[in-house]
Amino acid sequence: MDAGLLRHVVEIQNYTMSQNSSGDDVKTYGTGADAFATVHAQIITSGGRELYAAQQQFAEANAVIKMRYLAGVTERMRVYHAADGVYYNILNVRTDDVSRREALILTCQTGLSDDA
Questions:
Q1: Is the predicted pLDDT of residue 96 greater than 70, yes or no?
Q2: Is the CB of residue 109 less than 8 Å from the CB of residue 88?
Q3: Residues in contact with 49: Cβ distance below 8 Å, sequence separation at least 6, in sequence order
Q4: Buried b vs exposed e over 40-61: b needs ≥16 C-beta within 10 Å?
């Protein structure tokens, strides 16, 4: 993996479920020191669309995020790119094509989300 391509610093965030004072389930993501990991990555965006939901307009985009292999990353996590202020929901996690566990490739989507 070419280290020169890993120019974006991203935070991989895991969430925990808790209950608020009303008894409703609340999803809380770990940020900063509580994040799963902060790594260098390459973000490749591809295509996008605009859609309407709940009488509001939203932009949605697809992205592939490549990074050095990191064990434990799952589809239940999200990626935060602080420089752009963008959250990416992880749809798929796979290793590099030769399966040497050199790289981790995340297929992601940004746009509509249950929280920011």
A1: yes
A2: yes
A3: 59, 60
A4: ebbbeeeeeeeeeeeeeeeeee
92: domain range? 3-110
Which DSSP string corresponds to 62-97?
EEEEEEE--TT--TT-EEEETTTTEEEEEEEEEE-T
Do 7 and 42 touch, CB atoms closer than 8 A?
yes
Cα distances from 72 to residues 36, 75, 95, in angstroms, run 9, 10, 12
Domain containing residue 56: CATH number: 2.40.10.270
- In the prediction, which pLDDT does 115 show? 53
- Number of compact structural domains in the chain: 1
Asked if residue 116 belongs to a domain, the reply is no
CA atoms of 80 and 83, how far apart (whole Å)? 9
* Most confident region among 7-11, 22-26, 51-55, 92-96 by mean pLDDT: 7-11
For residues 38 and 32, give the distance between their C-alpha atoms in angstroms, rounded to a whole number.
Answer: 8
Whole-model pTM over 0.85: no
